[in-house]
Amino acid sequence: MPGRTLPTFTRSEVESHNTEKSCYVTIKTKVFDVTDFLNDHPGGGDLIMDYAGKDIEEILQDGDSHSHSEAAYEILDDSLVGYVLPEKAVSASTQKESLQNGTVEGATETSTFVHPRTGMSREEDLSKDTDASSDYKKHKFLDLERPLLLQLWNGGFSKEFYLDQVHRPRHYKGGKSAPLFGNFLEPLSLTPWWVVPSIWVPAVIYVTSIASQGLGPLATAGYWVFGVCFWTLIEYAMHRFLFHIDGYLPDNRVGITLHFLLHGIHHYLPMDKYRLVMPPTLFVALAAPFWKFAQSVIFWNWYGATAAYAGGVFGYVLYDMTHYFLHHENLPLWYKQLKKYHLQHHFLDYELGFGVTSKFWDDIFGTTLRPVVKTN
To answer: What pTM does this model have?
Structure first.
């Protein structure tokens, strides 16, 4: 049965749930909320409260203390609420033997944390080739050797299973693009990074020149810079509420396929350099409504709204270029930190870290990725 998409907890967070109002227990890295079961436990709730916030694997297996039936484990499965981040995790040697993209089975606790939802511990794992045959046999999702789109359309996958699998990154043949259509349409699914500035920088210059015909240089610059800054909020909102619409995604193949084409394929194959920047046709479709939006917000001055819109489009160009270089280029020190932060969004927790060009709006809205703290 496919795993659910669930949050992670630190050990101290689990230990804080040690009251009758909120009682968590763990078995290895799994976290269970057994609050509602306290009054129904055959031995009384006090027995559970003795282990509130603690690991219960040992006591469950202790036949001298109290034997537990299969039903007890089924109740626990229904109470699964997340995973605990272990203080120690998988050693490099064990990873080499047991870790393939999309799985953490075979892991043992020693030195490097492996995330239970993605099967990865560091950004380098994003570039490890996936064995397409064994991955397909194990997960029964998509065969990387065959056109992905028809597999997804005809796969009959539930939303829950799809979201679990699409956020387990794979890597195809050293960074090549896995087949999407498998026919003459294939080139249309590939967008080199240089297409973005080649098309949109001249467009920004042209629109800015039109805006400047009705504004002075300082006013043009002011509206234009406002547009660049406002783009950063749009970037955050689109990434969080459109690209990661996961919870509100329709549970049917139309919704799943659209999600995959819009952003899911980037999480599935995050190091595919030709499916990273936005195709021009998609950007036109997403950007068109913002023309009316700009005119509505800056309703008092058409030229000012036009300058702001041009600035916003330039902000998008910076975003897509930044996004590409974070994935594929060696960067200066400040950008290295941003690169590390963004790639953690892929291999650590895709439900946090929505800012790409900066962490500013993540900090404002409380979606900042927390670093994994390792202790020996």
So the answer is: 0.71
